[in-house]
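Q: How do we represent a protein-ligand complex in a form that can be generated cell by cell?
A: Start from the inputs.
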Amino acid sequence: MALDKMKDLSLTPAMIRIDLGEVEGVPMLTPTCSIWDKIWKFKARPDDLLIATYSKAGTTWTQEIVDMIQQNGDVEKCRRDTTYKRHPFLEWFLPASPPLSYSGLELAEAMPSPRTIKTHLPVQLVPPSFWEQNCKIIYVARNAKDNLVSYYHFHRMNKGLPDPGTLEEFIEKFMTGKVLWGSWYDHVKGWWKAKDKHRILYLFYEDMKENPKREIQKILKFLEKDLSQEVLNRIIYNTSFEIMKENPMANYTKDFPGLMDHSISPFMRKGLVGDWKNYFTVAQNKKFDEDYKKKMADTSLVFRTEL
Ligand code: PPS
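Then emit the C-alpha cells for the protein with PPS bound:
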C-alpha cells in the first residue's frame, strides 16, 4: 500500500504484518505482549460471560447468537455496534489513531455489566480472575483442517497479521504451533480438560452447522434463558451464514479499514464444513493426518472433518 494511503487511514508501516512475540511460550502479536501484565491482571466480574475459541473456529457466529439471546431476539439492538465493540476482545491491542486504535482491555473495563468478552487465549493464559469469579465460558472448537484453511485466508486478507506464506508453509507453521495464539492441538485439548472443572459449555462448529437449533438451545440452557419458538427461529435465521455475511455489524467490513482487505478474501468467506478438501493435496493430507494422530493420541476429543 502507498505511504500516503496509509497516512489517510492512520496506518503506519509498524501496523502492517506485525511480528509475533511470545507469552509463556505462546506466540502473540507484539502489542499484546507489551501489555501482557495488564491483561493477566484483568478483573473479571462474576456475571461476565467469556466466549473463548481458537481463532477462526466460529467466534463471530457464536457472539452473534449470544447477543441475539441476550437482546431477546431484537435485531435492531444487535446492530447497535460492530461485533468487536459489542464484545470486548480481551487481548486485542492496536496502538494507533482512530478509527484503527483498539484496546479490548480498556473497552471491557469501561463497559457496564453484564459483559460478554471474547478471547482466543489458550486456557492456561486466561486471566485468573475468570476462574476466581467462576464466570460462565462458552468454548467453540472447529476441526483442525477447516480451522487451518480459514486461518490461512484470514492471514492473507488481514494485513495486521504475519504473512502466512504459501499454504504449504502455513500448514507447517500450524502443525508446529508457530502461529498466532499457538498450537491448535494444545488449545482444543486444554479447554477440553478444563471443562470438567469449570463452568464451560464446549461446542463444536460442525454441530452448529449440522443443527443450529439444537446448539442454540444448548446455549440458551447454559445462559438460563427461555425464549419463545418465534424468537428462537428469528435467532436461527439472523445468525445464518447468509444473513451474517450481509450484516455490516457482523461481517467486519466496517472494522479495521485498510487492514482487512475483503477483496482478497472476505471475513465471511464460505462458512462450510469440509472446505479443506479444496485446498489440501493428497500428500499434505497424509502428512497432516499422521501428525494429527500423534498429537491427539492423549485426548478423548473427537472432531468431524465432514458432515
Ligand atoms: S475470528 O477472526 O477468529 O474471530 O474468526 P471466527 O469468527 O472465529 O471465524 C470465522 C469463520 O467462521 C465463519 N462464520 C460462519 N460460519 C457459519 N455460519 C455463520 N453464521 C458464520 N459466521 C462466521 C466464517 O465464514 C469463517 O470461516 P470460513 O471457513 O473462513 O468461511
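Residues 53, 55-61, 146, 150, 153, 239-241, 244, 268-271, 275 surround PPS (CB under 6 Å). Residues 3-295 form a domain with the Rossmann fold fold (CATH 3.40.50.300).
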